[in-house]
Structure to design on (654 residues):
């Protein structure tokens, strides 16, 4: 299997990306194509003693930054590490493409450069978040701020396949994000979608509220991209603030440090459980080839985990299963 | 000043409500009218040795539960503790009304039984949440799932007055919830509202993302009720899950208990800072008289804090200021 990786996406690129690729080669036995400025990649690899076995480099000059528009990937920055990654994937030079770069550009590229699965209205950005009992997929996480009921139904179908085939969850429980559990709650979009999901063959458990997102009562939360983005980032923001407060307690005083020594193992386990790095990759579901968004803050371990998920996605033929499930 | 309180609203009613009222009488020197079944209130007061000085009781039989529809307050349950509270407020028997009961019913009652401030399109449910630097008001928190730009502008005006007059924040910073900071982000509702807020005299700081909600970068987050409810409950859900995880670490082992003893003071301070009980009351902004929703899980201290805010709201003539600011 050959995975294409954007060497210049994310806050810690290219070092952590190159490191993550090298670790993935040795962990999974995959081949990798890194896209980006070759001289820089080789320089960083040498400086940090990172072996580049089984890693090819596709040289290109440009980089899409967080300040570039989403459309830059198809317009002004066709020679960027991200656009070139998409081109290689479209040409069949690799089995999947990952980038920790600009999410908007990645969604636009997945839609316009890779095309959609036949029948799919719009691809969705589908991050996996930690929950009390494991994890859940939230989609759409921000690719489509305006949605119609049929789009939400397709999101549910795609996520159900992903959670079953890649995350190995039997009969994934699908929840519809809403302001209350009763079927008449929410806007017209949500009332209509409720009816459609209820009639579907999916394991639809009904409406779920914001407080249920981390509680583990469902495996998939379906919503429009505006709502999903607010849930996703509120989740990350609140978790980050509380983790920082805890860290301050344990580093701010001698007593704190003594306490930390006593419970360090448990604290670390908790931090890991609620760390997005564990589920580093968010697929762009609906693209006709595997495209993964890696968290912008990705470290090497994030990338390794994301590549692991990517391999499972490819091996499970999840895109063919999604395609068949839509009918 | 005389405050009307629904004795049978919330999970811990009537005991914690009665207790909170008695404490408020002694703390603030206010008079209180409790609505609800008089025999039960007197029985609970005697059993728990709670003095009922300066507390009148308006006897009524019925209670609106969490399972009742929002409309029950004006239709099937006109003799409930909540509906009677609204009647007393409308008749001018008290200066403000508080309930920890059914939020939907409270919003409907505030709109239909108390009426709106002249010019206000729709009252908003406006909870105050903790942030890293203090607190912020989020509105609409769920009263109106469908909103128009003018409604969002009014929410911003009302919240700005509230945060200035009641929470004593100078020139409250108003943020618009959105999926990105650029002015073209979001749905049509948000793009239009952005333009309107930018032209207003409010201290509008622009779009803010979900992760900024707890970070303290603004004092007010404006959004439609669907989005606001998802933010509010995701915030509560994530905070609750993490606090429980921390509690488990400190109670689950001998080492944990030893560590807890060392940092108990700091942990409690953090818990208090992120505890909604501190900001126990969410005003229904836009109602022509002060109506406060108290958290459903309210303890006596929650009610005391909410009554304190309520007194500030009445004394600041905030409703007159809002009315003048709308023009």
């Amino acid at each position: 299997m050959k995975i294409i990786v954007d060497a210049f996406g994310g806050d810690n690129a290219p070092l952590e990306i190159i490191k993550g690729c090298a670790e993935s080669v040795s962990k999974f036995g995959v081949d990798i194509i890194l896209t980006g400025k070759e001289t820089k990649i080789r320089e960083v690899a040498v400086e940090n003693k990172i072996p580049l076995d089984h890693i090819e480099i596709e040289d290109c000059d440009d980089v899409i930054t967080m300040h570039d528009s989403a459309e830059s990937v198809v317009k002004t920055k066709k020679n960027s590490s991200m656009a070139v990654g998409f081109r290689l994937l479209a040409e069949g030079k690799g089995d999947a493409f990952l980038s920790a770069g600009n999410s908007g550009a990645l969604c636009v590229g997945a839609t316009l450069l890779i095309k959609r699965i036949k029948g799919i209205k719009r691809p969705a950005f589908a991050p996996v978040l930690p929950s009390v009992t494991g994890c859940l997929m939230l989609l759409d996480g921000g690719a489509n701020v305006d949605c119609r009921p049929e789009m939400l139904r397709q999101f549910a179908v795609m996520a159900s396949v992903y959670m079953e085939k890649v995350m190995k969850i039997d009969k994934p429980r699908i929840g519809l994000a809403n302001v209350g559990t009763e079927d008449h709650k929410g806007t017209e979009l949500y009332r209509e979608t409720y009816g459609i999901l209820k009639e579907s063959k999916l394991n639809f458990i009904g409406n779920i509220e914001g407080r249920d997102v981390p509680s583990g009562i469902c495996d998939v939360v379906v919503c429009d991209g505006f709502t999903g983005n607010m849930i996703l980032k509120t989740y990350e923001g609140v978790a980050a603030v509380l983790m920082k407060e805890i860290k301050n307690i344990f580093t701010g005083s001698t007593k704190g440090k003594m306490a930390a020594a006593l419970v360090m193992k448990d604290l670390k386990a908790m931090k890991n459980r609620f760390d997005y790095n564990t589920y580093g990759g968010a697929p762009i579901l609906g693209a006709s080839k595997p495209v993964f968004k890696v968290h912008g803050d990705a470290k090497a371990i994030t990338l390794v985990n994301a590549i692991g998920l990517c391999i499972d996605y490819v091996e499970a033929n999840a895109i063919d299963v999604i395609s068949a499930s839509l009918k």
In short: The first helix of chain B runs from residue 15 to 28. The mean pLDDT of chain B is 94.
